[in-house]
Specification:
This protein has 393 residues and is of the alpha/beta class. The protein has two domains: 31-266, Type I PLP-dependent aspartate aminotransferase-like (Major domain) (Aspartate Aminotransferase, domain 2, 3-Layer(aba) Sandwich), CATH 3.40.640; 270-392, Aspartate Aminotransferase, domain 1, CATH 3.90.1150. It is 35% helix and 15% strand.
Length: 393
């Protein structure tokens, strides 16, 4: 155990590093919502035009190809993924890639809720990816692009077969607007407003390729579909959903906030600018990890390290010597010290993940705030070491 570092003088200007809901864009105030069409029917012309604007601005920033449909759906990214699984699966065998908590939830849906007989789950522990080369693309494939709770992302889209027979169904909620998505190798992409652009919660986005639309119009699931999952009418795609005619009532406050985030994204250089901001945040953390012996990335391979949900483990020998319960206590204590000091909120590891820290590095987070946070991590760790290191000894 070394000498405790002095308490840092510089504090992050914005201490919000939560991985969802995430930090608002720099300079955000409630005044950004002043033009919200509250008290109006979302089916009236002007509110519906705002919903359609969210769709069109999102498609433009992401570079979504012609022929893709994008709709606003209920229940955040979870609702969008569930809608895709319940509406599209069952026509052929399914592969589910699971390497963190949310991808394991989708595996549970496929195997235990939909009870698909011809389903295979390819698993990997936190910090690793499954064998991407083992995926059978004659089948439908369900996966996350970025493991929000593990900080592990797929390195690129080269592993996805361009001539696939099945659908590539991708939960991209902590990747969209921060990572390059190969649209020509994807068929379903989902995300939520509250991640990379820092929007308010409860609304999801569902993007469908022409291949996914063809599946919807040719395949009828063997199970009943709740109203909020129904994407077709009379065997044809319900095109209204993808023009702003939402299945259920959206919040026009949230819609206005989403538009504010999209306009900000355009102002910082669009997708290229957003990716650069997120990658700069990862680079700042990586520089610090390289010179800090007590911490390590949860993601084992550098090319799979997330630039949004940056997950860290405690590598100190005394910490590794603790039993699992004590490790969890020590990690929670570390996060609690940072919160008490008002320098970092909500950065403890996800409840199902190995004990450690999870720092959101999405585009709305300023790299200067990341750099200001890092000395505080060293300082707080020294307090935890003084308390728990004696137990390990």
């Amino acid at each position: 155990m070394g000498t405790s570092p002095p308490k840092p003088a510089l504090r992050p200007a914005n201490p919000q590093f939560s991985s969802g809901p995430c930090a608002k864009r720099p300079g955000w105030t409630a005044a950004a919502l002043a033009g919200a069409l509250t008290g109006r029917s979302h089916r009236a012309a002007e509110p519906k035009a705002r919903l359609a604007e969210v769709i069109e601005r999102s498609k433009a920033i992401l570079g979504m190809p012609e022929g893709w449909r994008l709709g606003i759906v209920p229940a955040s990214d979870t609702g969008a993924v569930e809608m895709a699984l319940w509406s599209l699966l069952g026509a052929r065998g399914v592969e589910v890639l699971a390497w963190e908590s949310f991808s394991k939830d989708w595996a549970t849906d496929v195997v235990k809720q939909l009870r698909l007989r011809d389903a295979r789950v390819l698993e990997a522990p936190y910090g690793r990816l499954p064998d991407l080369g083992a995926v059978d693309w004659s089948r439908d494939v369900v996966f996350v692009w970025n493991g929000t709770t593990s900080g592990v992302r797929v390195p690129d889209g080269a592993w996805i077969a361009p001539d696939r027979e099945g659908l590539a169904i991708c939960d991209a909620t902590s990747a969209a607007f921060a990572m390059e998505l190969p649209w020509d190798r994807l068929d379903v992409v989902t995300w939520s407003w509250q991640k990379v652009l820092g929007g308010e919660a409860a609304h999801g986005m569902l993007a469908l390729s022409p291949r996914a639309v063809a599946r919807l119009e040719s395949h009828t699931p063997a199970w009943p579909l709740p109203k909020i999952f129904r994407l077709t009418k009379g065997g044809k795609l319900n095109e209204g959903i993808f023009r702003g005619e939402t299945i259920n009532t959206p919040s026009m406050l949230c819609v206005e906030d989403a538009l504010d985030g999209l306009r900000w994204a355009e102002g910082v250089g669009g997708l290229r600018g957003l990716i650069a901001r997120s990658e700069a945040n990862l680079a700042a953390v990586a520089e610090w990890v390289a010179r800090t012996p007590w911490v390590a990335f949860l993601a084992e391979r550098p090319e799979t390290r997330s630039c949004t949900s940056i997950c860290l483990t405690i590598a100190a020998p005394w910490f590794r010597a603790l039993d699992a319960e004590r490790q969890a206590q020590a990690a929670k204590r570390l996060a609690a010290i940072l919160e008490k000091e008002g320098v970092a909120y909500d950065i403890g590891a996800y409840r199902d993940a190995p004990p450690g820290l999870r720092i959101w590095g999405g585009a709305t987070v300023e790299t200067g705030d990341i750099r200001a946070l890092l000395p505080w991590l060293d300082w707080a760790f020294a307090q935890v070491e003084a308390e728990f290191g004696k137990v390990a000894a």
